[in-house]
Structures are given as C-alpha cells and as structure tokens.
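RECORD TYPE: protein structure
NAME: Glutamine synthetase III
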Amino acid sequence: MSNVINVAEIFGENVFNDAVMQERLPKKTYKELKKTIEEGKELQAATADVIAHEMKEWAIEKGATHYSHWFQPLTGATAEKHDSFISAPKADGKVLMEFSGKELIKGEPDASSFPSGGLRSTFEARGYTAWDCTSPAFVKKDSEGTGAILYIPTAFCSYKGEALDQKTPLLRSMEAIDKQSIRLLRLFGNTTSQKVTPSVGVEQEYFLVDREKYLKRKDLVFTGRTLFGANPPKGQELDDHYFGAIRERIAAFMKDVNEELWKMGVSAKTQHNEVAPGQHELAPIYVQCNVAVDHNQLVMETLKQVAYRHNLHCLLHEKPFQGVNGSGKHNNWSLVTDDGINILDPGKTPHENIQFLLVLTCILKAVDRHAELLRESAADVGNDHRLGANEAPPAIISAYLGEQLEDVLAQLISTGEAAHSLKGGKLHTGVSTLPDFSKDATDRNRTSPFAFTGNKFEFRMVGSRDSVAAPNVVLNSIVAEAFSDACDYLEQAEDFDLAVHDLIKCYASEHQRIVFNGNGYSEDWVVEAERRGLPNIKTMVESIEYLTTDDTVNMFEKFEVFNRAELESRAEIKYETYSKAINIESRSMIDIASKHIIPAVIKYVTSLANSINQVKQACAGASVEVQEELLLQASSLLSDTKKALKRLEEVTEQVTGKEEGKEQAYFFMEQVVPAMEALRKPVDNLEMIVDKSMWPMPSYGDLLFEV
Ligand code: ADP
Ligand code: MG
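PREDICTED:
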C-alpha cells in the first residue's frame, strides 16, 4: 500500500523543528536558542556551534550533503548557493563533514549579481546572509530523492547592513507591530501577553498546462504569459470548472505537491479548481508572517517542480491568458498574541469590543492614510493585467467590513455611541459598552481588495507570482504607526474610557471614506471612489513613486523598517524590473511574429491562392468566392500585422535613448505596451481564420481544455 500517505507521520519530517531541537540539542542550548527565537536575544558563538553541529548531523541522516543559505533577493525568486559539509582533506586523504556556528549564522554570497538599486557600489560588493532562526531550517530532496540539501532561511544585507532582500524589512516590521501592539494591549489592562505576531495565510492560485504544448508556446516559455491567442469558443462562462471535480491527472499532481510540502512542514490544507479552466488554488493553514512568506516561496517552487515531474507546466503569471480569469494571492492577515489571543477577533464582551473597535479603526486609518503604498506593495508587472481589469479586485483600495460592522461604525459616527447591532446582536448602552456582534452576520464580498472576514483581513490584490513579503511589510508597518499614534494619545488621557471612545469615533469619522461594502467591480464604484477622493492607481509604474514620498519615508524610518536610501533603491529596482520584463515581452513578440506567425500566414494565403487557381483551372464555372474572401481578409490582416510589427520594432529600439529607471519604465508603459497590444490584434484575428494545422502554436483551447 505504498500509495497511502500517513500525513501525521510525514508532516514536518524534513524540518529541524521544535520537536527535533528539543530531542537533539542539550537542554541548555535548546533554552538559549528558544530565548533567541522568542525574545530576540543574541546567540552566543559557542551555542551556535552546538546547534550547527546537531543540525548537520540531523541533515546528514536525512541524506543531505550540502547546506544552503536560502534567501529572497529582490529578483522575485529565491536564491541559494550550495556548500558541501566536507572539510579540507586530511593527511590521510579523508575528509570530515563539518558545519560551524559561524557558517550557520552568517554567509557571504557574491552580492554583486543581485539587484541593489544603487545601494551597493561594485567596490563594496559584499553582501551577507544572516540566519533567521524564527523560520525553521529544512531538508529539501530532489524529485528522485537522490540528493538533499539543508536549507537555512536567511536575511540578505549589504556590508553596511542595508536590506537587499524581502526578509530583512519583514522581520523589522514584525518587531514594530509587536512593540506597538503590546503598548496598546497594556492600555486595556492586558499584562500577560508578551509578544504579538502577525499571522498570515496565503491562498495561491495557479494554472496547469500540458508540458508538450507549453514548450510549443515560445511566449509562455520566455515571458510566462501568452502574448498572442484568440479566445476559445468556450471560456469560463459555464462556471463548470470552479469547485468542479478534480481530474485524475491533476489530482495525482496535487497529491504529490501536498506530500512534498507536508514533509517540509508546509501545512497545505485546501485545494480546489478555480474559476478559469486549467486554474487551481492551494491554501496552507496560517502561520507567523515570516514563515508564511518563506512557505509561499516553497509552495510556488514545489508547484513548478512537481508539475515538471507530471509532464505538466505550472503557470504562476498573473495573467497567462487574455480574456480568461487571472491569478492572484489572498493574503490573510491577523495579529495574535503569544498566549493565543487574536486581537482582530471582535470578542464576546463589550470590553473586548472596545479594544477591537480601536484596533479596527486604527487599521482603517492606516489603510486610508497609506492606500497608495498598500497598492504599490501589490504592484508587479503581471498584476497590471489584473488589477482593475474587471475580474480581480480593483486598483482602488477600500475596506469591506460587512453590514453589521459598518452599521456599528455609522452609529458611532452619528450618535457617538453604538446602541445596537444588526441582526439581533446583544444590546448594550453607555460609553464602555458597545454591541456584541456575532461573526458571519453578513454575507461575503469577493470584490473587495481588503476585506474583513470574521477575525482577519484578507488583502486580495497581491499577484500570483509575487512574494507576499512587501504587502506584509506595509501592513505591519502602517498598522504599527496607527497603534503608536493611538497609544501616544491614550497614554496621556486622564479619563481612559472617554478618551478611547472619542478616538474610535474620531477615526471612524475621519476614515469612513475607505469603507465600501458594495460591488468593487462596478463602474459606479470607480466614480464614487473618485468622489470620495480615493486614489485609483492603475499601473505598477505609476505606483512606484509612493515608495519614496515623505509620508512613506517618515513612517518607515520612524519604525526602523526602511531608511530613505533603502526605499529609493527599491523604487529603482522596481522601475528596472518593469522595463526588463516589458523589453523581454516585446522582443519575444517581435521574434514570434516575424519568424513564426508571418511565415505561417504567408503559407496559408499562398495555399488559398493556389486553391483559387487550381479550382478555376479545373472548372471555369466553379465558385471561388469563399477562398477569395478569405484571401482578401488574411492578406489585409497580414499587412496590418507587418505594419504593427514594424512600429513595435521602432519603439523598442527607441528605448535605448531613454534614461534608465523611471524614464525608461514610463516609456515602456506608454509607448511599447500599446504597440504590443496593436500587434496582438491582427494576429489574434488571423488565428480565427487561418487553417488550424498551419497555425504555428497550440491555441488557447488546446492549452486550457486539454490538460
Ligand atoms: P476563504 O474563505 O477566503 O476561502 P479560509 O477561511 O479557508 O478562506 O482561509 C483562507 C486562508 O486564511 C487560509 O490560509 C487560512 O489558514 C487563513 N486564515 C484563517 N484564519 C486566519 C487568521 N486568523 N489569520 C490569518 N490567516 C488566517
Ligand atoms: Mg480568500
């Protein structure tokens, strides 16, 4: 019965987790490490040596020969360099397997090949990786199970300690929100909780296509999305795929994905088909923020690797197919104390409700104040095809609270107190007594970019391929700022009850405009949002500047998450990333159109012309009307294609004259992208009329329905 998976047995079997540490480390060492993990105490060199040794022994038992400081540079992917455990050969020619505390704690990859956005000049190319002991190390085996590597999650910084990665600011932002949340809890009489950590659960969407067909689509191979492609006769209009039965081939794939993830301690929980044909979703159970970010990277890598084994290809791009639903990620976020209290839980007593209402209104204030920044955190080249494109959350940030909570806020604003709650919730009066609202009193809203769902906020703008680090850095930091402001005020208050009540009322009124419970996909909302003065930033390029506004810089600097130089470097990298991606897309289009599509269409029109001549020769009276009409149509589209191709070639050439960075990115967005769209149009029309056997690549129908 080799097919039966004993989940409980395999879960975490390749993770150097707490249980393993407790079992293998000397008591004293374990205690010291726990102190570091829980309280951030610095680790002694001697302790690190003991841990490294045990970690190595354990990893070797799992078959590992190498270790890797695993980090997340600003390339969007993870990076790893493998070092074997072997020492220099001794006099007798034998080697030892060694791993020191120093090697565990600090690595020095050649940083010069990773983007630094000008932070690091070439003469100081040093970069360091530093062990994040709060995210457990694990062993990853390759698909055949022959080789294995010990992965050590690390942060990546420059020689001067500037963040060059996703994890460093994330860890800093977690410290900020911890500190400010504890301050807030103390004001409400909580003296027991010692730490507050953001909990994050990431729902990941993806497409699966057949690998053979994928390889025939050079656009998918080069750019991750189709640059051409007419819509199939059947799309997602029947909604027969969503939550539909999972086909055997896909089910076998999912089983392997789960198994791999479970072994690495990723608690893959939910899997189902998504809206579009060929689209699926995977969600793990939420964990602390930095671990969730690491795990999401593992999820994406595992989906890709396992797909390969199944002769499938996993597309993580936000919009692999035009006209078909795109893919995103839902970042579920809440704040949980070390003694298990979720402070985003409305709670059962009025006292808890007040604390909750303050937390809630602080979050609204944070999101309203920094809406542009939050929007930017989900900006990604592929996400431009999705956000606001009438299928995904709009590009406008708003928060959904549900009728019941919105009603509570409305009462607070109009009368200064909430006397009742909708749908028969308990009734309380007076300043320190606010209504006890039950969860799920209202329906779900799936069109909101930032929705309160019972005891967490769900940020739905993130792109499927993007790291969730940036959105969490922003959420943690902006909420820390709002908590800090509230605490500054409340700590000075003479009458706490009165002050907190006033503050909730004030925040609720001042930031009410960010609350929207209606249909986020509707045109009316765009108009209404504009009336409310909410920003509507439609593209990645336009959002980047919000990384470096004074408001953003002050907020991040105050909580020591980023300094100005780090933010400027990130903006620089984003402009570059955008330009590079569009440049690749445009060159791929030029290549495919000139070498594959135009020659195929020429063959087709020639075959039509031959057919006309031959038919006429064979029988003078026979009608060649159809062939002639097709010939005219195809020739005219062919000429449109050639013109559009020429235009795209020209604008792509002009890029070289533009200054790198912002100017170039704007040029790509304003000139190259429209030229690409213009080339796509006649080609997609040609695909509708050209003989299928002559079309140089698999169609949308082939890709989406034949998996
Ligand atoms: P949906 O209703 O959006 O389909 P679920 O309720 O199944 O989602 O949860 C989606 C994700 O949210 C999962 O990864 C889940 O673990 C996570 N999640 C649930 N509760 C919390 C919480 N309190 N904080 C953060 N994430 C959470
Ligand atoms: Mg969801």
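COMMENT: The chain has three domains: 7-165, 174-562, 576-705.
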